[in-house]
């Protein structure tokens, strides 16, 4: 399983000067740039590949020329290391409002070849719905340069058609001729501007006219068109690709509008012959939609692999959410990509990430606003400098007050020194340069306090001085007063400093945290970030950067947690990516499955053919494995299953050990099929040395089982790991009911009733031991409508020969069995907010106890008959994963969970459902259970959806509302 990041010029200055907030060189072209793969060692780089879209490559001519000349691996700037695979695509989001992708198939193939990427992707067109009632109308933006603007298009048009205006390319690829010959005009021909008359008249005639117009394309069903065009490109590109020997692998991109359309597209492209399939167009979609689509495509792929005894790799474009790992893994995807971890470092809140749940707000230390005058910008710079000094002292554990005073006393000399320097050097030759950047660089280097000047007084002041230096010459001197005025303004502001130390005089301020907080609070309020105060407190108190051992946090420490400029923010993005990758590896372990090649390799064209013919049992047991990567070993290391066989295979054990050792460093597990002990011990040792767990097998079936077990608990369930709804025999079901406590309780008069604090402070046993405290079995204590219904249902199920265990989630005492004795109490989750519920649930160990019950027994069906607040208390979305994949869990009103897991059924139990059953919402879940209990024995087997049918069964007879009274 591989995680790719899109290449969007995410680079930092390799030699950035954090102390002075300075770039290493002011000229970007000369700067030594570090990409994420330069920051980390090969073993710890938190990505497995890079996605490079044509759109990004062609963003500037300079970049396009460079990459065309060198390719992505040899480009001196990008220099992607050889071990990182690269995928290149067109970047369909970039041309989503054009009627056609602006590229042709042949041209894209040569683009990929020029770029020297590992994988090229077919040309897709995002399916964006069909448009409005009358479909979609595309207009060439370049025809709006006359009197008519886009806003002048009459409402009568925009109300019924979805108008997409974009700048069309000067020339369309040839295939466009077949669809829209009118728009394929000569690149040099003038585009006539639209006039109001073009949009006047009945809508039908307007559209009719525009459909013949070279500046417009009209389609009634644009979604269908885009879908078909994407498939057509797949067909054509495949044929072109087969004709020549291209040095990259071809991936097909599929599009669709729902899981069925995606699955259909997948079937079609697999039949064409593709063995690498990418799911496009899901970036930004709600997670449950993405899950549905990924699952549907995954099932199609899996079925194809088994029918054809082959393997297919698949990729999800633009999707990487920790909540999606389960789906991606179980659906057998081989890779995915996303930039969101990186970007989260400077977009939205919680920019410093430790993991999915634990995020902190980086402290914003702002640069002066670009509209600030010189006095304002000097003040903002001095203020921010003080905060940076304080933050760094806090981080280092030194005295904040001393650090501030040291900074101030060392800054006192700067302005006088500037004045002195300028008087002496203002006419030096080095300032006779046209480019301001060059003048400023010379000033920075030559003047003793060049860097300190910017660090304390800001870039604005230094740039203004550099501007004067550029103008100033011996023949035509600038009056020195122009320099002095600037320096005088700066000096007046500096007189108000040090500003921060007085904030520390308050008698409440005792600890270093108090000190740094006093300064940060005042600064944040001053710059207008006072809405972040609470978040900042947490950041400073928790010091999350101390808990990260990535090279960035180790090197730059608190600077990674400071929100300021590209060099801090992007580094934090790299850190976030590393943390994300840790979670990814934890959930979807990095597994390599391989066997050693033999001399027979040369008789085969591809590794796949070789493995299928020469190691048929191994192939049989591994070709459809999810998560794991599959390959064949020779002296060069791993040859992937889809590779061509090497032209000169060698099995030299020393070379093999060296190469495998290097590659294994990026895997957690290496599972080797070794029939006859022919894999050299040195190879295994080399991998183990890199902390990769190595196991060898002689029986491929054992290997398979071990891989699936390593993938995660759910993967070994049932016949295979495919997500499939379980089907259970109805005989002697083992049923678990997780019920909840109710407000109404059967408590003897005058008995003491314990409250929320007492039930936390004392155990159930302690309270029961007190005088006059009655103990009441949980099954009798709760007398709510739902509990009564559930009790009836349980009784009936038991009398029909099923085993039922019933537990309650009690807001007073946590998880209790139905026969446990409880003292009277008055606590309910329904009156608490989410964080109170979580807090209390934690103190009562509800989740741990429930997990134990679920893990230690083997229930066929688990009912979670709980209301919303009680679902929160057990974290139901996580808890349902404890229901084994071949067993059934039943929840209510949790459709999102049902979408995610095939063995979980969510049954709607809302007001409208209650009405259908002639009852009210309270008690409806119990009524459902009674229906289930009554009907289940009429069936031989049940599946998740049959449970829903049974529960929601409404007797059409006249007396259905009296069902609850029926005796059990
Ligand atoms: Zn870190």
TrEMBL record:
> From what superkingdom does this record's organism come?
Archaea
Give the organism, scientific name: Halobaculum marinum
Q: Give the protein name, as stated in the record.
A: Queuine tRNA-ribosyltransferase tRNA-guanine transglycosylase
């Amino acid at each position: 399983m591989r995680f790719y990041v899109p290449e969007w010029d995410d680079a930092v200055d390799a030699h950035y000067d954090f102390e002075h907030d300075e770039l290493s060189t002011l000229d970007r072209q000369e700067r030594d740039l570090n990409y994420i793969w330069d920051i980390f060692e090969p073993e710890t780089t938190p990505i497995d590949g890079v996605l490079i879209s044509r759109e990004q490559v062609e963003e500037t001519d300079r970049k396009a020329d460079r990459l065309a000349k060198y390719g992505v691996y040899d480009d001196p700037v990008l220099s992607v290391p050889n071990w990182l695979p690269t995928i290149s695509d067109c970047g369909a989001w970039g041309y989503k409002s054009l009627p056609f992708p602006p590229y042709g198939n042949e041209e894209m193939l040569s683009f990929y070849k020029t770029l020297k990427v590992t994988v090229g992707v077919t040309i897709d067109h995002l399916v964006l719905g069909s448009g409005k009632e009358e479909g979609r109308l595309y207009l060439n933006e370049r025809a709006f340069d006359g009197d008519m603007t886009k806003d002048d298009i009459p409402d009568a048009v925009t109300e019924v058609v979805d108008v997409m205006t974009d700048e069309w390319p000067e020339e369309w690829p040839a295939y466009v001729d077949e669809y829209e010959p009118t728009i394929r005009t000569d690149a040099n021909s003038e585009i006539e501007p639209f006039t109001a008359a073009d949009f006047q008249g009945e809508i039908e005639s307007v559209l009719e006219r525009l459909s013949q117009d070279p500046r417009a394309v009209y389609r009634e069903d644009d979604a269908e068109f885009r879908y078909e065009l994407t498939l057509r490109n797949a067909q054509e590109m495949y044929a072109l690709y087969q004709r020549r020997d291209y040095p990259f692998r071809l991936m097909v991109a599929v599009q669709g509008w729902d899981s069925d359309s995606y699955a259909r597209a997948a079937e079609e492209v697999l039949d064409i012959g593709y063995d690498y399939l990418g799911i496009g167009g899901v970036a930004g979609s709600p997670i449950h939609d993405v899950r549905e689509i990924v699952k549907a495509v995954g099932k199609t792929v899996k079925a194809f692999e088994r029918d054809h005894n082959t393997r297919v790799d698949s990729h999800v474009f633009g999707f990487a959410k920790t909540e999606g790992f389960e789906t991606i893994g179980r659906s057998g995807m081989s890779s995915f990509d996303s930039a969101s971890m990186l970007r989260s470092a400077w977009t939205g809140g919680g920019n410093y990430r430790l993991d999915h749940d634990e995020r902190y707000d980086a402290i914003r230390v702002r640069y002066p606003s670009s509209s600030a005058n010189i006095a304002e910008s000097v003040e903002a710079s001095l203020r921010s400098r003080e905060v940076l000094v304080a933050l760094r002292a806090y981080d280092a554990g030194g005295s904040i007050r001393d650090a501030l005073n040291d900074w101030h006393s060392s800054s006192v000399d700067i302005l006088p020194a500037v004045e002195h320097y300028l008087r002496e050097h203002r006419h030096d030759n080095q300032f006779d340069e046209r480019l301001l950047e060059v003048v400023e660089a010379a000033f920075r280097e030559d003047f003793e306090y060049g860097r300190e000047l910017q660090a304390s007084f800001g870039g604005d002041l230094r740039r203004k001085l550099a501007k004067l230096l550029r103008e100033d010459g011996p023949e035509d001197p600038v009056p020195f007063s122009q320099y002095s005025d600037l320096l005088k303004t700066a000096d007046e502001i500096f007189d108000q400093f040090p500003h921060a130390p007085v904030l520390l005089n308050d008698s409440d301020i005792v600890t270093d945290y108090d000190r740094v907080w006093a300064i940060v609070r005042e600064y944040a309020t001053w710059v207008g970030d006072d809405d972040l105060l609470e978040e900042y407190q947490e950041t400073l108190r928790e010091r999350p950067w101390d808990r990260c051992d990535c090279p960035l946090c180790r090197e730059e420490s608190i600077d990674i947690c400071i929100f300021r400029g590209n060099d801090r923010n992007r580094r934090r993005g790299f850190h976030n990516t590393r943390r994300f990758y840790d979670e990814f590896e934890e959930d979807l372990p990095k597994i390599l499955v391989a066997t050693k090649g033999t001399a027979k390799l040369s008789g085969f064209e591809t590794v796949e053919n070789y493995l299928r013919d020469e190691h048929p049992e191994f192939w049989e047991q591994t070709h459809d494995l999810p998560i794991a990567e599959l390959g064949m070993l020779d002296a060069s290391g791993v040859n992937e299953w889809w590779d061509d066989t090497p032209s000169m295979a060698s099995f030299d054990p020393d070379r093999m050990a060296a190469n495998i050792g290097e590659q294994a460093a990026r895997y957690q597990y290496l599972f080797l099929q070794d029939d006859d002990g022919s894999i050299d011990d040195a190879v295994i040792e080399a991998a183990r040395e890199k902390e990769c767990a190595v196991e060898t097998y002689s029986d491929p079936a054992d290997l398979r089982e071990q891989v699936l077990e390593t993938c995660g608990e759910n993967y070994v369930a049932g016949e295979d790991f495919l997500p499939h709804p379980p089907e259970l025999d109805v005989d002697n079901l083992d049923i678990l009911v997780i019920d909840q406590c109710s407000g109404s309780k059967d408590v003897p008069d005058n008995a003491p009733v314990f409250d929320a604090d007492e039930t936390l402070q004392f155990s159930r046993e302690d309270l029961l031991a007190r005088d006059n405290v009655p103990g009441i079995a949980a099954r009798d204590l709760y007398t709510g409508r739902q509990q009564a219904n559930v009790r009836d249902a349980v009784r009936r199920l038991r009398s029909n020969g099923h085993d039922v265990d019933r537990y309650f989630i009690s807001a007073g005492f946590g998880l209790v069995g139905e026969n446990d004795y409880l003292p009277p109490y008055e606590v309910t989750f329904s009156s608490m907010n989410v964080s109170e519920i979580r807090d209390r649930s934690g103190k009562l160990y509800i989740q741990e106890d429930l997990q134990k019950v679920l893990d230690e027994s083997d229930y066929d069906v688990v009912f979670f008959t709980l209301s919303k607040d009680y679902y929160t208390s057990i974290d139901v979305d996580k808890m349902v994963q404890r229901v084994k994949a071949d067993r059934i869990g039943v929840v209510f009103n949790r459709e999102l969970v049902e979408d995610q897991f095939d063995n979980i059924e969510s049954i709607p139990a809302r007001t409208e459902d209650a009405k259908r059953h002639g009852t009210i919402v309270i008690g409806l879940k119990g009524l459902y259970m009674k229906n289930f209990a009554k009907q289940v024995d009429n069936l031989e087997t049940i599946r998740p959806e049959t449970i829903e049918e049974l529960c929601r069964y409404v007797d059409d007879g006249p007396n259905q509302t009296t069902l609850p009274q029926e005796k059990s």
